[in-house]
Design a protein that fits this description.
Strand order of the largest sheet of chain A: 7-6-5-8-9
Distance between the termini of chain A: 72 Å
Protein name (chain B): Aldehyde dehydrogenase domain-containing protein
Helix content of chain A: 40-55%
Family (chain B): Belongs to the aldehyde dehydrogenase family.
CATH architecture of the largest domain in chain B: 3-Layer(aba) Sandwich
Strand order of the largest sheet of chain B: 14-15-16-13-12-17-18
Number of strands of chain A: 10
GO molecular function (chain B): oxidoreductase activity, acting on the aldehyde or oxo group of donors, NAD or NADP as acceptor
Radius of gyration of chain B: 22 Å
Number of strands of chain B: 20
Keywords (chain B): Oxidoreductase
Structural class of chain B: alpha/beta
Helix content of chain B: 25-40%
CATH topology of chain A: Aldehyde Dehydrogenase, Chain A, domain 1
Oligomer: heterodimer
Protein name (chain A): Aldehyde dehydrogenase domain-containing protein
């Protein structure tokens, strides 16, 4: 808080907005920050500006955390995502405040965005133990074989979040990636870095293992190419990359045949297709020919 | 206390704050029943726990009317997202109050606290959590866009898993948008009353869930009520048959989860240590009062003696006694009527040539107890190979070939569960294909999960609970 009111003379203790990598909150190794000012030009924060090396650290942390998260039971993952919604609900006022300052929203519209984001976490929490039943199959092959197909997480997903509605946009791309057990490196909207780091604090206190989500505040145009060409990233979600040279990013991603989600105008749609786009289908054959 | 005996480790009942008398829960109000209140006793001590209101036909009618009003005015019009939020709240409160519910369940039912604490109550919470997530995803259940709930669901549940059966019934019904009138079993109404408190804490709108305690006549009035749209019953095949007849020709939808006589098939290549544990779990979990119990052990002839030796050795280590003791493996039989039935069937089995064996164990003086029992030399035609005992009694038959095992396993009017123990994957899957049973466990037994459909073939009933199939039972296709 940078404002004081007439009723108190107490001086606020403003927060330092740092990156979120491997469950910790480091500054950028580059030492760079971006100054954030509110709609009236008042100073709000110096937000860490991530570098290529930070992105590399984030991918390393995501890779390390991913098997554990994917190995948790679907029920457990669902409870963790629901816990995110619970913790977010309790910190609603903070997010409303941050959105008002960075996006210039009215209190009502800021609250509406936060509430929609909370509900979107709940919606995704419900998918963890259902998507395999909806999208998986028992396959009637022409022979004495047990044959089933199940969706599995693709691995590490790098995301350029929607550039509008910072909290809702971020939720709309991060939550679907987490449902089945991917780990995420996300570049939040450049215009809304505060809610991104505050959401990271929520994730850090919701039993989500460290490294499953990594948040790189900074310049998407600078960071996205490094993630697109990184050999240890499995999928690239360009939902919020419409204003970047996203075709070049898709070309770079093709080097290691990353799965690519192309840009969407506005907020990513609420559909299980987004969850499934970040999965691999595994088919298991087992003979039943010999009794 | 002898060497290696266990000191008593009873779970405290101080976590409970029970009322002396419970009423019916209708339209969000606690109301007096029209009939004479009845008592529920703790089967391990025969001490009265509390009295419960008896719902007569008028009370059942009031409950159905409350459910109808809630369906019409509140729950039906509510968004799936909001229904889901109520169910998530219920799931969380159940988790918060899990220990209290576990103690209450063990007290009222007689099953060991180890089971209520580690199996029943965690599954109850999981069931609500799982179904909560379905409430706003009904379009993905394969019924087309915007499927619709039936309306008022009448649900009658048994005494063997009182709160878990409530969860299996209530959670999918509410997620789909139905409202509920539920009748708990006469001998185990306690945790349903605590569930009403959970609903109150969750702020669930009045009338969405209504609870009517009573006996078989109460249940009969409920399922026959003309304004009920959907009936779900778990209990005996005899009562299920009566309900199916009563509902024939009506518009009511019906699902039944009835008796079983599960075959647990052990091949000579089975991992024997795990198989012994699976056999014990299959028949002594919840004192064998489980519809899907592995009550018929089919063991390959060449390993029969080895399996029996090891099984008896293992049974000798089972601790029978105080359900609230954390070391107890086998608790009390739920009622004197059930104890009488088990005793009668075991006597019959012995009279027909079976050889019964139980480990030496001292049974408490008060309460209803039956020592874990295995009966060998049972013929396929024997009463105890055909009739459901619903007690800690394992009937042992032998087989020589896989085909013989399949024939014997399927030689029953029931078809709820089966188990297969073998290290050969091909064999396990080939045999699973040929078993006429709704749930087949391989190299495990008595596993339950809200994502996994459960239910029977043949006279074990119809309809499934759990997963997509379980949700479908509470929905019909949307209007085109």
């Amino acid at each position: 808080m940078t404002t004081t009111t007439k009723t108190t003379t107490r001086l606020d203790v403003p927060k330092t907005y740092k990156l979120f990598i491997g469950g910790a909150f480091p500054r950028s190794e580059s030492g760079r920050v971006t100054e954030v000012r509110d709609g009236e030009g008042r100073f709000v924060a110096n937000v860490a500006k991530a570098s290529r090396k930070d992105a590399r650290e984030a991918v390393r942390a995501a890779r390390k955390a991913q098997p554990g998260w994917a190995g948790a039971t679907a029920y457990n993952r669902g409870q963790v995502l629901y816990r995110v919604a619970e913790v977010l609900e309790g910190r609603k006022a903070q997010f409303v405040d941050e959105l008002q300052r960075t996006e210039g929203l009215s209190a009502a519209r800021a609250r509406a965005q936060v509430e929609e984001a909370i509900d979107l976490w709940v919606w995704h929490a419900g998918w963890t133990d259902k998507i395999a039943q909806v999208a998986g199959s028992a396959n009637p092959v022409a022979g004495p074989y047990f044959n089933i197909s199940v969706p599995e997480p693709t691995g590490v997903v790098a995301i350029v979040a929607p550039q509008s509605q910072g909290l809702l946009g971020l939720t709309s791309v991060v939550a679907p990636a987490l449902v089945m057990g991917n780990a995420v490196v996300v570049i939040p909207a450049a215009s809304s870095p505060l809610v991104a780091i505050s959401l990271a604090e929520v994730l850090a206190t919701s039993d989500l293992p460290g490294g499953v989500v990594n948040v790189l505040t900074g310049d998407p145009a600078e960071l996205a190419p490094w993630l697109a060409s990184h050999a240890d990233v499995n999928a690239l979600d360009l939902t919020g990359a419409g204003d970047l040279d996203w075709v070049a990013l898709e070309v770079a991603a093709a080097d290691t045949l990353k799965r690519v989600i192309r840009p969407e105008p506005g907020i990513a749609p609420e559909t299980p297709q987004r969850i499934l786009a970040l999965t691999e289908t595994k088919t298991v054959w087992h003979t039943k020919s010999r009794m | 206390m002898a060497f290696l005996d266990y000191a008593p480790a009873p779970e405290s009942t101080s976590i409970l704050s029970l009322r002396e008398d419970y009423r019916l829960w209708i339209g969000g109000e606690w109301v007096t029943g029209g009939g004479e209140p009845f008592a529920s006793v703790s089967p391990s001590t025969e001490q009265q726990i509390a009295t419960f209101a008896y719902a007569d036909e008028g009370d059942v009618d009031a409950a159905v009317r409350a459910a109808r009003a809630a369906f019409r005015d509140v729950w039906g019009p509510m968004s799936g997202r909001d229904r889901g939020k109520f169910l998530f709240r219920i799931a969380r409160i159940l988790q918060e109050r899990a220990r209290e519910l576990a103690v209450a369940e063990s007290l009222d039912n007689g099953k060991p606290i180890r089971e209520t604490r580690d199996a029943d109550i965690p599954l109850v919470a999981q069931w609500f959590f799982h179904c909560a997530g379905w409430a706003d995803k009904l379009d993905h259940l394969g019924l087309g866009a915007a499927p619709r709930p039936h309306g008022v669901a009448a649900q009658v549940i048994p005494w063997n898993f009182p709160l878990l059966m409530l969860a299996w019934k209530v959670a999918p019904a509410l997620a789909a948008g139905n409202t509920v009138v539920l009748k708990p079993a006469e001998t185990t109404p306690l945790t349903a009353m605590l569930f009403a408190e959970v609903c109150e804490q969750a702020g669930l709108p009045a009338g969405v869930v209504n609870l009517v305690t009573g006996d078989g006549a109460t249940g009969a009035a409920l399922v026959r009520h003309p304004d009920v749209d959907k009936v779900a019953f778990t209990g005996s095949t005899a009562v299920g048959r009566e309900i199916a007849k009563a509902l024939a020709g009506t518009d009511k939808k019906l699902t039944l989860e009835l008796g079983g006589k599960g075959a647990n098939i052990v091949f000579d290549d089975a991992p024997l240590d795990q198989a012994i544990e699976g056999i014990v779990d299959g028949i002594f979990f919840n004192q064998g009062q489980v519809c899907c119990a592995g009550s018929r052990l089919l063991v390959q002839e060449n390993v029969h003696d080895a399996v029996m030796d090891r099984l008896k050795e293992r049974m000798a280590t089972l601790r029978v006694g105080d359900p609230l003791d954390k070391n107890t493996d086998v608790g009390a039989i739920n009622s004197s009527e059930q104890l009488e039935r088990i005793t009668r069937l075991v006597d019959r089995g012995v009279a027909e040539g079976g050889e019964a064996w139980s480990p030496a164990c001292e049974l408490p003086q008060e309460g209803y107890w039956f020592a874990p029992t295995v009966i060998t030399g049972v013929e396929a035609s024997s009463t105890i190979a055909r009739e459901e005992i619903f007690g800690p009694v394992l009937s042992v038959l032998t087989f020589r070939t896989p085909d013989e095992a399949i024939a014997k396993a399927n030689n029953t009017p029931y078809g709820l569960s089966a188990g297969i123990w073998s290290d050969k994957g091909s064999r396990v899957l080939a045999i699973a294909d040929k078993l006429r049973a709704g749930v087949v466990w391989t190299n495990t037994f008595n596993k339950f999960d809200p994502a996994s459909p459960f239910g029977g073939y043949k006279e074990s009933g119809y309809g499934r609970e759990g997963g997509v199939q379980g949700m479908q039972a509470y929905l019909k296709a949307g209007e085109r």
